[in-house]
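Let's do one together. I've listed all components of the complex below, 652 residues spread over three lines.
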Amino acid sequence: MAEPTPELLTKSFELGYTYTRSTGPVIGHFLSELREGRIVGTRTSDGRVLVPAAEYDPVSAEALTEFVNVGDEGVVTTWSWVVDPISHHLMQKPFAFALIQLDGADVAMLHMVDAGSESAMRSGMRVRARWAAERRGSITDIICFEPT
Amino acid sequence: MREAAIIGYTQSAQRRYAGAANESELIMPVVREVMQSVGVSQKDIDFTCSGSCDYFQGAAFAFVEGLNAVATAPPIRESHVEMDAAWALYECLLKIWSGEADLCLVYGFSKSSPGELRSVLTLQLDPYYQVPLWPDAISLAALQARAMLDAGIISERDMAEVVARSRRAALANPKAQLSGESSVEELLAQPGFVSPLRRHDCAPITDGASALLVASAETARRLCARPAWIRGIDHRMETGMLGARDLTRSPSARYAGARAGVSAGAVDVAELHAPFSHQEIILRRELGLADGVSINPSGGALAGNVMMAAGLDRFGHVATRIMQGEAGRGVAHATSGACLQQNLVAVLEA
Amino acid sequence: MSETREPITGIEVPINLQFKFTAGKALTRFLTSIREGRIVGQRCPGCNNVYVPPRGMCAACGIPTEEEVSVSDEGVIESFTVVHIPIPGNPIKPPFVAANILLDGTDMACLHRVSEVDNAKVHVGMRVKARWKPREEWDYTFENIAWFRPVEGS
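Okay, and this is what the predicted structure of the assembly comes out as:
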């Protein structure tokens, strides 16, 4: 006799992790500056500028303390096109995730680009930050980047 | 250092949805089967280590529930990694090398079906600069694929060829979730998913479990006619700052492969843990695998991707081929993190 | 500069994820039975222990359990505590007694409330019996038993 198909009992639930995270001085400074509409990086001893401000140099592991202002415009180094956003995405219309190298930075930062359509996207394109009107000290104080 | 070998491996059927079976009910059959395959029982096991991630179940310490599937009386020596079970295998090797164990049981498991996998994987990222933007696992992998396409290292055709070969190979793997014949042209005709990735460039969502036995030299020879000896193994990782990495390369895979001794002899078979088609191409390059090497004859992660077991599965499939006499020397690889951030590489020999 | 604000020292990153929990085969059988007012456990073929709720396996022996056993809704308190602190999300008003209760015919205690008794009189070894909710309220839950109450004379 075949094993009867077991009845399926399921229950949906939402799990919330509502943590407050300490930033430490470096990330705290980056976010404080972001709240003022400015973007800062940290400079390594060999002169590279890491954005967003990094606490440690990923190459040498040295602690980084020197802050450098960088531009809120830059170049898309690579991108992916989200045609069908999932519920967690902040933009509920087609958009790009992109790595963006800001003017004055030596590495790229992750953010979103609102370009309207995939055909408007290309690596090497210049983009500018679209700032939130009300800023609270979060990476989302930059709503996204947009083509210049 | 003491020698160690893989002497048994079992995986469950890889399914999109395991239905009524919960995690423990997926683990128990594979644990029993792998022990039966070499004629041992839990009392013969010196050390048990598992790999899983509580976020997939949405319950803290959910991995403890998995222990219902192994005999724990009298009390056993046990550990767990919140990683792919390939790293649990690594912990077992440490026990064997240090002389604290001769026979170890490894298992990895997950059901990705109950939750939102793309978003769950976001939680492994930087919580200050990345998580608030909710970059999902597929979007991040797509950044890497685009960087490779832009650099002219790969073409979309190359990616489709990986998918076609993986699914064709999976026809010979009865446990595979996705298998079949499909032409490169058919695959390239599919629409974009998270461009430049198409759906088939991404590993499927899979429920399942796997178990593996690893033993010291004397125990391995006693229990197995043809053990798969672990000749070298190394784990390397890169920064979590995605923008500070050259995503077209994987220095961690290259370094781990060199330290594991991949180039010290001809490679018959390699199982590469590449949840995205372009990542297999990166890994092949960084590990220096020649054109004649059989890559992912199991179908690889593209044919079935049990989170936290898919890396262990790569070890299991290479070991099985060696134990069955189909291969003499193979490379097993497991990855973790976004865009191949961490890589574990081992050389297995008959 | 209009005003100097306090530097950022912490951020809130609320994470909310949706899940669909699956009871598993053994627990589904248990919940299906308790909806009918029966407590069903499973017996281990190795050590003969009976488990309620069943897990489909014996964690001591590491083998599957398939034989189903109907057990009594009466048992004995193995240990207990008096909870004085309100638990977030728990509607039960303290102080209340949470007890490990070994049902007759089983070998592993299950956790439930004890009521209809002065908390100060609850003791280890006390015999208790299930106080079922009205039948029309029964669902797929162990909460079909509102609490356990002392068996008269114990």
